[in-house]
Amino acid sequence: MKTWAPLIEDRLTRGLRLAIMVGALALLFPRGRFYALLALAVLLLAHGIVHWRRGGKRYVGAIAAVTVALFVALVYANVQRHKVESYLEHHRPLAASLAPDGVHRGAGPGNNGPLTVDVKVTDGKIERVDLVEHRDAVYAFDDVLPALRGRATVDTQFLAGFVFRNERSIVGLGAAMEDALLKVIFDAPHLDAASRVVFFLTSNEGGRITINALAILFIVLLAFDYTFGPTLRPGLGQSLNCYNCQACVGVCPVKQVGGDPFPMIMVLEARLGNVERLAELAKYCVGCGRCAAKCPVGNSGPSIASAGYLVWRERQRREQRRREHELRTLTGERTEVDRG
Amino acid sequence: MILGYVTLTIFLAAMVLTLLRKINLPVQTVLVLVTLVCLAIGAIVKGFTEGAAAILTLPNEMMGGIILHPVTALLAGLFLAGALNASGGFEAFKVLIAKLQKSPLGLAGTFVVLINFPMITSLPCGRIMAAALLPLLFAFGSEGGMNLLTKSQLIVLIGAFARNAFGSCGPSPIGGVGQIGEGFLGSHFPTAADGILRAPQAFSLMIGTALTALFLKMISRRLYPDSCSLRDKREGEVDAIVVPQAPLAGYASLVIFVAALIVAIFQPFGKVPVQTVLVIAAIAIILIGRAGIEALMAGIILLPVSAMVAGFMAAGALAATNGFDALGQVLGLLAKVPVLGVAGMLAIFVQIQTMIPLSCSRILTAALVPVLFLFGPAAYGFLTWEQLAVVMAAYIINATTSCGPSPLGGGGMMGEGQMRVESGYIKGAYTFTVMAAMTPLAAVYMKFLNLVNFAAPGEALTANIGALGGFVVLIVAINLLAIRLMARLAAPGDKPYFTQVGGFLATGMFAGMVLALSTFGLHVIPALQGAFGGLLAALWIAFMVPKKLEPEPAPF
Description:
The structure holds 2 protein chains of 2 kinds.
Chain A: H1 5-11, H2 14-28, H3 33-53, H4 60-91, E1 94-95, E2 102-109, E3 114-122, E4 125-133, H5 144-148, E5 153-154, H6 156-160, H7 167-182, H8 193-202, H9 208-231, H10 247-251, E6 256-257, E7 260-261, H11 264-272, H12 275-282, H13 290-294, H14 301-331
Antiparallel strand pairs in A: 1-5, 2-3, 3-4, 6-7
Helix pairs in contact in A: 2-3, 2-9, 3-4, 4-8, 11-12, 11-14, 12-14
Chain B: H1 2-19, H2 27-50, H3 52-64, H4 68-86, H5 89-101, H6 106-115, H7 117-121, H8 126-139, H9 151-165, H10 178-185, H11 198-223, H12 248-266, H13 274-288, H14 293-298, H15 302-320, H16 323-336, H17 341-349, H18 352-355, H19 362-375, H20 385-400, H21 412-419, H22 427-454, H23 461-489, H24 494-520, H25 524-544
Helix pairs in contact in B: 1-2, 1-16, 2-3, 2-15, 3-15, 4-12, 4-13, 4-15, 5-12, 8-9, 8-21, 9-11, 9-21, 10-19, 11-20, 11-22, 11-23, 12-13, 15-19, 16-17, 16-19, 17-24, 17-25, 19-20, 20-22, 20-24, 22-23, 22-24, 22-25, 23-24, 24-25
């Protein structure tokens, strides 16, 4: 029966699985986004180097192109930001009169996440500032919002007088107001969409808490992959039940292979997905089944050995077919496989 | 409350039936099934009595039982061990052991260090050290090639090492079982998380290891003489000269490993979660050792991790369906039985995990520590906070060592595999020493020494140390006497077996009495009640020790 397992096993390798999980993490965990992306880049780079060392050049070009593109994007976005910051440095405190009358929306970093404000400008003055969305404490902006009414500028010095509330909230409010005005000042530079995407992906809170959370997520991801792997290979899922008790070793007539406890080492290799090593170890199994009789969960050494060997043989066949296909493509000749 | 009794019965019945191999499934599978059944029953009952909204809260309550910290800390510890193994750290350790042998410590001194090494390193699961070092111990025998030890010496060495390893998860500050208890005691003792249970466990484990070696040497070998398939040195056999070697990266990784343990335990850089320290150390080791990320995964031993999560889930399901309230009531009723009282009930309770030894102690610990906590001022008020700490110390050491004698794939089976003996060989030695020595030792240590540090700094330390010394001498002496008496009659057959049961009962009574004295002070009634409770626990434990061991199946 044709199953998807070989396809998944071949294509969805451990490196790729981890890359997908880390990528998802990067999108879902704002504070750890930069670190997750960094890990993803390192993972891809390591994959590329390993692949290159083995003589494969298939993905190396693509990985190099992605790396260069990322680098260029980072430089471009930072140049854009520098322009905006230079403009602000020269125009602070930012005058409301530079902006046309109307309600302008801007965003900035709050204490617990992004905050969005609406700044209403009338006759060159700030008529009112409304918080559209924020995750900070409900009292963080109580005094400051009424105090902003009627002011002619977004004055960070003035806002600094309210930092007893929460410095990060107040600084974020100032940044959001400046963003709102900058967007509508006709000669002001502003971040384009590409730069915003880059900063979305690289923004982070590099504190200790973030690193600790990432360490725990790293542990969970590896453990998930560890338990997920064997289930992809037919017949090897039973290895997840192993207690590492070595009861099988006690009754096995072989007992040790290369210093490793046998047949338990077969089960452990099956868990890790080291099918080549498993196929090698399978040759030592005499098939007496005493381990299965002794195992507290009924794991069978011979069964693992044969399943592992079959998976390995199937993988070898697929590899051979792939090589023959490549050869056929290169030479244009019909191979044994084509002839059936 | 009827719902609670039903789910509690299902849980206990499933555990006992699994232990007796009437349910032939991995214990985690059983726990997950029990969780689902309990939740289903809970949903039906609560649906009828409290409405549909009550059903929706059940899964959340079950998930709420999962405590993530010990799970992730354990996994991080396993990663570190995997990295250490891949980079040759254990090879480096073997070189150090070889050098130690040639030092003034000599062979005997080196073995003593080696046997206690799991406790010295205190990793979150004893299997890590056992998997790495048991082959080294085996190599000291004739079949291993070094011919340094006879067959019986090798049994004692491996058995004692395994005993030490399969209790070392208790005092481990990096995801150890004891941390579950420390977390609960933290609600009264502000610094409990700094290791209030660590020293009592380590102390009793050290003495218990020595007594285990003695029991194996004097009793087990005589009770099961035909069980071991190891062979002694043959005439004319040449000893293999084994000179261990290790790569430089192995030494470096060993240094990182030790540094990581020091940082995790003593926190010199401020409060950093243990997981972060261990993950950083593991990554540093795999970079130095040029190992892949697979090296980290190779360190994973799934059983304790999945067992802990399954245990937490079952505990959560029991909590959601009032199972713990029912257990509390049952134990409360037991405490009202005149011959038992609170002291007798506690004498049984602290031995419960040795009575039902599962493959990983975390399964029941996760479920029962909250129950023990309820005996304190937080709910039933049977115990003061100080008394609760004493009972917790006794309970935790009993719990953490329970994977050793478990026939369900417990850690002790790793030792039995290396000893080439039948399953059950070590059961008598392991259960006896835990019940009779380690449990009361942990209680007296907590009472007379540790509580002085954690709760009452003004107390007279000298007097306490004197009392502790007296109790330790008494407990060890009683154990030595019992082992000596049992050894005199030990031989295969029914009669010696019942003599052994007698030894278990006498020492069990004594252990219950010491626990009661440590908890309630010098009062006659609680002491007698404790002795009776200890007797009942010992009765069950003694009859779980196999009379004889099934021989291996004939060679093919």
